[in-house]
Write a structure and sequence with these properties.
mainly alpha, Helix Hairpins, about 0% strand, globular
Length: about 140
């Protein structure tokens, strides 16, 4: 498995820490609660889609795409913090769960001894089959 590029893990941890501080010190962040942060994830994802798709015949502005992707991270991590504050699983547990889901649905990626899909279409079929079978 490819490791994180230099600084990525540190930057992700720093963002999570900054968002915890934001949540603890910002009445606005707290008042939004889980529902508000989940709505923010949806809204920011729509803005990301708009920037990434851009005009049909022109390439997207990758700087704007990066900014919108950052906003999605901000909202998603804040939603995870709000989930934990509401008594749900911790952000670490959420990350562990999504990693386990990825491994269940795409085991061939993490086990080179398994037969590998021949192409993207076959991989999509295997993924869909596993999603139904193992969640």
């Amino acid at each position: 498995m490819a490791p994180l590029k230099e600084g990525q893990g540190v930057e992700f941890a720093a963002l999570v820490n900054a968002l915890w501080v934001n949540y603890e010190r910002s009445p606005w962040a707290q008042e939004r609660g889980l529902y508000g942060w989940v709505n923010s994830v949806v809204s920011e994802a729509e803005e990301l889609e708009s920037e990434a798709v851009g005009e049909v015949f022109s390439p997207p502005d990758l700087g704007k795409v990066a900014d919108e992707l950052g906003d999605v991270f901000w909202s998603a991590i804040s939603a995870g913090i709000a989930l934990e504050k509401a008594g749900g699983p911790s952000l670490a547990e959420v990350l562990e769960r999504v990693k386990a889901k990825l491994i269940r649905r795409k085991p061939w990626i993490f086990n080179p001894a398994m037969a590998q899909p021949r192409d993207a279409d076959e991989e999509q079929r295997l993924y869909t089959k596993n999603k139904v079978a193992v969640g």
